[in-house]
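[SOLVED] Need 3D model of a four-part complex

Original post:
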Amino acid sequence: MPVNKRAEPEAEKKAQLMAAARQLFVQDGYESTPMGRIAKAAGVTPNTIYWYFEDKDALLLAVLDELFQENMATFLTVARKPLAEQLLWLVQTLRGFSRLISTVHARVRESKPVDQWHSQFHSIVEQLFAMQLPQEMTQAAIAAEVRIAAFTVEGLVTHVLDDDAVRLTCQQLASRWARA
Amino acid sequence: MPVNKRAEPEAEKKAQLMAAARQLFVQDGYESTPMGRIAKAAGVTPNTIYWYFEDKDALLLAVLDELFQENMATFLTVARKPLAEQLLWLVQTLRGFSRLISTVHARVRESKPVDQWHSQFHSIVEQLFAMQLPQEMTQAAIAAEVRIAAFTVEGLVTHVLDDDAVRLTCQQLASRWARA
DNA sequence: ACCTGAACACCGTTCAAGT
DNA sequence: ACCTGAACACCGTTCAAGT
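Solution:
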């Protein structure tokens, strides 16, 4: 007849595992953090993780989803500012997860789920920018400009550059879209 | 007194190893090709590779250098054409090595030698483009435009896109640099 | 349902030993 | 100088067994 026997419901344990994985993935990178280290940080045995997650990729995707949700909310806040500022905010935010981003790109080829997540992420971000570009542009031009912006953001995030270079590149990029 | 005892001088054996590695790295990717497979393709035992190369990274760098030298020559041929065409050529050529490029980006963080190779590669390609941009632009603007171009090329190379999208993006990118 | 100890398969690399 | 067989350390994952 008891309903809440366990001190830790399944969801909570899963959250602990994700918190440990997230911290280590962001700090040390996905490839450089063995399952054993995540397990130890969460106080379990490595194989226990497999009761909650299918494999290491599933853990990665769960972490990515969490990070996306958390930061999407505040991005929508920034979405009313000038485009150059939006770009700069996006780059600075993503820079905090640059190792994770490199990992996603590396694993797009090896893992279908990672590939799907990556495609979806691009779609959302690119659409958010597309709707802000001048209406006078052709659809093809808008699509091209959005790709240029997306790839530039990725480059700024994953390459080592000083803040000035990042800022100037965002401004130069946005200067093209001055409304007619 | 004999001078050329061996049927296969060291350089030749090394070249064989590099040819095997190159083929497999390009086809299957660096992470997905074990040293054992390279060894088998070259007709030796895995540990033999370590007599010729310090480690797997050294093999990778040797292959990268080879590819760079081979393609640099024909790039200089293309360098007299319009910028949009140069970009398109660069993207299409690099697309043949997209897995290798993803690997380089992933390993920049883990391997100092790979990081240095990557930086040097960027420097050379970016300078080649910088000198072709309109003289009227400020140094800062040129630097920003070159970064935008480099990152867009990288994005076009590493993401899945149809040929039309690639072509349109290169044109749109170059349209900005129309000489005043 | 939840977790563990032990094992498996795979991989890069090393090393003592051979020619 | 050049190459090998055997071993080492490490890793993701599985599985039979425990509670």
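Edit: The domain at 10-53 of chain B is CATH 1.10.10.60 (Arc Repressor Mutant, subunit A).
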